[in-house]
Amino acid sequence: HALFPETLYEDLAPEERVALHADVACVLAAVHDSAAHTPAAAEIAHHFHLALPAGYAEEAVTYAQQAAAG
Question: Are 63 and 29 a contacting pair, CB within 8 Å?
Fold first, then answer.
């Protein structure tokens, strides 16, 4: 059911959500070459943005800029 993942996500504590987004962003960044413009840059930036409380501002900006540059 489509609501199942959303319900699980909403049940996470805020710090767990931040950690989850940080983990996803780091894995995506490792899979995609961080030095090159990647089609996944917007998605990576999104996850780093949601991980800002954990200190990922520089990464969020870098990937957002890559996404904007296309």
Answer: yes
